[in-house]
Every structure is written in structure tokens, then in C-alpha cells.
Amino acid sequence: MPDKAERLRALHKTPPILVLPNAWDAVSARLFQAEGFPAIATTSAGVAATLGYPDGGAVPAHEMIDAIARIARAVRVPVTADIEHAYATTPDAVADVVVRVVAAGAVGINLEDLLPGSSDLESLGTQTSKITAVAKATRTAGVPVVINARTDVFLHAIGAPDTRLAMTIERGRAYLAAGADCVFVPGVRDRETIGALVKGIGGPINILAIAGTPSIADLEGLGVARVSVGSGPHRATMALVRDIAKELKTRGTYDAFTKHAIPYAEANELMK
Q1: Do both 25 and 92 map to the same domain?
Q2: Are residues 163 and 49 in the same domain?
Q3: How many angstroms separate the CA atoms of 241 and 234, rounded?
Q4: In sequence order, which residues have a C-beta less than 8 Å from that of residue 33 and are 6 or more positions away?
Q5: Tens of pLDDT along 58-101?
Q6: Mean pLDDT score of the chain, rounded to an integer?
Q7: In what order do the strands lie in the sheet containing 146-150?
Q8: Considering 133, 178, 183, 188, which has the largest number of Cβ atoms within 10 A of its Cβ?
């Protein structure tokens, strides 16, 4: 486990850019591993939906941790887990949850600064205290977890538009100083802002790939260390299932799933 954590940490520091697919269950994780990705992330939204919950902290911590454990057991590569706000409020409680996540098999985490059920951010002082507590607790536990500190300034349009870049840079620099390994800034896709974030934060940053995001090659050229895809693949899979359902219901035919389905034997072999 410590070796996996260091492998994941090293992937943030040297080229090429770290491209992380986000899995929501064991089979999606196996599929991503089979394509040669050096590490796999989880998607809190995808895991939540799979468990029957909406996104946004609705999943009980023990259910999320159990799901992370199943994903981590399914693959050989390092797994970094999206644990939202860590289902806790105080630095010590957050650290306790992260130690449980590491015990479940993950060697990295996303920790966000949006207050649950709110459009406000955690105070900078409290969020940095959480990051420091997590770094200390996981070192003590023997697996120094890779911390991807997420700030939702842009994603949730916090503050006046002309203040968001400076606010994000301030938070990003503080999170790195507190012990984070990477700063995750979802909601940004224009090259100028991405370049300014890379320069201003002065450490590894993670960009979320959405429609209109520069290509992976372009992000690497801008100095981005990590790109992830969030719940996008899970939602694309949902769209396929909906198409299958509509075709069965309205046309009574089977093209939506028979044309592109993985053969049964191959699908079964994947899970051995």
C-alpha cells in the first residue's frame, strides 16, 4: 500500500500528464485497467447512483467506503477515491474517515471545500486544518495518502467573477502548503484561466474534462498535471441504458445493446 501511494504521487510529478478515468463499480474499474491506465479514480456521483442515492453527500460513509473497497480489490493499479467532504465536519473526524478509506484500499483521495448542502465554502483555515490532519493521520497509519484538494470556487460560481481566479489561487497555494499533493479546480475549461492557475498555484493541478475542455495534449502543454473525467462516463452509460429501454419499449427491437455489447465470455473473463 505505501508503494502504491508513492506510485500515484510520482505520477503527478513527471510527464506525461496523468489521465484518470473515474470508475463507479468493479467492472468499470476493470475495464479502465484493461486499457492500460496507470491509476484509477472513483466518481462520487457514479458510486452514489449505483448505490441508489443522489450525489452531494447523501451516501452514508460506510456505504461509500464499502464501494471504494470493492473497486480497489478489483484492480492492481493505485486507486484514488472521491470522498466529497469526507462525510465529517471537524479535522479529526475527516482524518478518521480518510484512514478508513485507506484501510479499504485507496491510496489517494479527493477532498472538497464546498460545505455540504450549501453554496458556501469551508473557511480557509478549517479546510487547511483538515488537509494537515489527513496528511498526518495517514502517515501515522503507514500509507501517506495522496491528497487531491478540490476547490469549488469556479464550479459553484463563488464570489464575483473577477475575484474567482485570485480566490482559487489563494486556496490552492494554501492547500499545497497544508500538505495536499494536487489542487483540483473543476468548472474551468478556457486556456487562459487554466494557464493562470498553473502559474499562480505553483504546483500540480487537476482539471475536470467536460464538453469544451482542451484536449489532453493541450492541457499537458499548459502545464496541467492531472485530468479526470468525473461522472461523465457513468452518465454516458446511463444514456445508453436509457436508449436500450426506449428501443425495447417503443420499437420492440434490440439494436441498442446487441450491436456494441461485449461478448458474454469476454465480459465474464474480465471479472476473473
Answers
A1: yes
A2: yes
A3: 11
A4: 40, 75, 76, 77
A5: 999 999 999 999 999 999 999 999 999 999 999 999 999 999 99
A6: 97
A7: 18-20, 226-228, 205-208, 182-184, 146-150, 108-112, 79-82, 40-42, 22-23
A8: 183
Nearest alpha carbon to residue 96 among 57, 126, 62, 48:
62
| Number of separate domains in the chain | 2
| Confidence at 2, pLDDT banded by 50, 70, 90 | confident
For 84, the domain range is 2-230
Confidence at residue 118, expressed as pLDDT on a 0 to 100 scale: 86
Length of the chain: 272
Same domain? For 189 and 268 the reply is no
pTM more than 0.85? yes
Give the CATH number for residue 131: 3.20.20.60
Q: What is the pLDDT at residue 31?
A: 98
Mean pLDDT of 156-164: 97
The answer to whether residues 106 and 68 touch, using CB atoms and an 8 Å cutoff, is: yes
Burial class (CB in 10 A: 0-12, 13-18, 19+), 156: middle
Q: Are both 49 and 87 inside the same structural domain? A: yes
CA distance 196 to 167: 12
* 89, 194: one domain: yes
What is the sign, positive or negative, of the torsion defined by CA atoms of 158, 163, 168, 170? negative
Residue 197, pLDDT above cutoff 90: yes
